[in-house]
Amino acid sequence: LEVSVDYLVSQGEDGPTEVHVADKGLVERVRLIEQLEPADKDALLRVIDSMLSKEKMKRFLEAELVGSRG
Description:
The chain is mostly helical. It has 3 helices and no strands.
């Protein structure tokens, strides 16, 4: 497919400039994550990044599959 993982998980060259979160529980979790020890925070972020990459890859492949059929 000639697409890098960086392309799939990036939000553009500069990343998102502003984030609006309606889920107050998620906002509180982010605040708590910021307070973790660096090693724990890094481990948690690697898990989150992995799950997000998996979902983006799934959506991309589904779109490619639909596109290749038409």
